[in-house]
Amino acid sequence: MTILNNISLKEYNTFGVEVYAKRFVSISSFYDLQQLLKTEKELFLLSGGSNMLLTKDIEKLVTFINFKGISIDRENENSVHITVNSGENWHEFVLWCISQDYGGIENLSLIPGNVGTCPIQNIGAYGVEVKDTITKVEALEIETGKLVPFSNTDCEFGYRNSIFKNHAKGKYILTSVSFQLTKTTHQLNTSYGAIETALKEKNITNPTIKDVSDAVIAIRKSKLPDPKEIGNSGSFFKNPVITTQQFIEIQKQHPTIPSYKISETETKVPAGWLVEQCEFKGKRFGDAGVHEKQALVLVNYGNASGKEIHQLAQNIQQAVFKKFQISLEIEVNIF
Ligand code: EPU
């Protein structure tokens, strides 16, 4: 465990933004983490770097969590319980599950980031959220150095939300996540329109989890930029929930507005549609931009600073509010 000075974090965040860590340490064992916590309490935790926008150099000790390892806790004919250390890459874990014919997370293929951060924002895509398969999260309490288990209920999961974004924020270091996946009785979720279409195009009537994963990968590749090619952090904003009354008013002016009914009184509208209506889709301001195929995704074409991307996000928020009186909430963590 060596503390390094003045390290560029460009390779450590999927936006590819250049800021510097005054001090940086990579931690690959639980023991090292406990040792570190004896002397350092003010850590800036970094894992997959896939849900953050860095706008300035980091003063705190940047601690890169790099715990590896996947273990099977128990299994029977129908299901398997797996514990995955937080530094494992999410998509590689999904592919490994598919190769073992373990079902439940195939719709979450190709999401950037590491396993340890998937519960924080309760990653979700194509009709599935990771909370549906998580049985336990283990985390080290920074204050005490003790390992604390969180059950699924303890995690207080919500749409792109959990306890780790709220009152547990900054208090824990997530060390592992446990999942329950299916072995024989896979519950495929193919109702999401684009998945159905992709399967039909391939004449697949009885899909396997691999077919669903392949379809999701193809859809994501066609819509979402690969962070290895163009820096981005996935959806930059959450899809806002508005009153159904406000929705009906907007619909009168914009009959094509897509929506998802949440309840009798609440309706969710896609932020990507709102941003597109404000004519930001595909626009570029220096090296900061809005992706041409999905207006919910802000991109770094190379050398945009975090501040420039943040400014663009604020301009979008203002334009959407002016046109629709809807406040877009930023989903990515800004530092
Ligand atoms: N839309 C537009 N213009 C756009 C983008 C979308 O009009 O530029 C419209 C689409 O036509 C569609 C609706 O908005 O009618 C929804 O679009 P899409 O299916 O692409 O999904 P989304 O709501 O924009 C959410 C997640 C994504 C996830 C997809 C698929 C959030 C904030 N985003 O996007 O998650 O992949 O659904 O399930 O909930 C992420 O969180 O990083 C992420 C990529």
Structure description:
The chain folds into three domains: 4-65, Uridine Diphospho-n-acetylenolpyruvylglucosamine Reductase, domain 2 (2-Layer Sandwich); 70-223, Uridine Diphospho-n-acetylenolpyruvylglucosamine Reductase, domain 3; 231-334, UDP-N-acetylenolpyruvoylglucosamine reductase, C-terminal domain (Uridine Diphospho-n-acetylenolpyruvylglucosamine Reductase, domain 1, Alpha-Beta Complex). Helices cover 24% and strands 27% of the residues. It contains seven helices and 20 strands. The protein has helices spanning 30-39, 90-99, 193-201, 209-223, 244-253, 271-277, 306-324, and strands at residues 4-8, 20-27, 43-46, 52-53, 58-65, 70-75, 79-85, 124-125, 128-129, 134-141, 147-151, 172-182, 231-235, 241-243, 260-261, 266-268, 284-285, 288-290, 297-300, 333-334. A five-stranded antiparallel sheet has the order 6-7-12-10-11, with no helix packed on it. A four-stranded mixed sheet has the order 1-2-5-3. Helix 3 packs across helix 4. The longest helix is centred in the C-terminal third of the chain and has 19 residues, at 306-324. It is globular. The site of uridine-diphosphate-2(N-acetylglucosaminyl) butyric acid has 17 residues, from strand 13 and helix 6.
List keywords for this structure.
Uridine Diphospho-n-acetylenolpyruvylglucosamine Reductase, domain 1; Uridine Diphospho-n-acetylenolpyruvylglucosamine Reductase, domain 2; alpha+beta; 3 domains; binds uridine-diphosphate-2(N-acetylglucosaminyl) butyric acid; single chain; four-stranded mixed beta sheet; Uridine Diphospho-n-acetylenolpyruvylglucosamine Reductase, domain 3
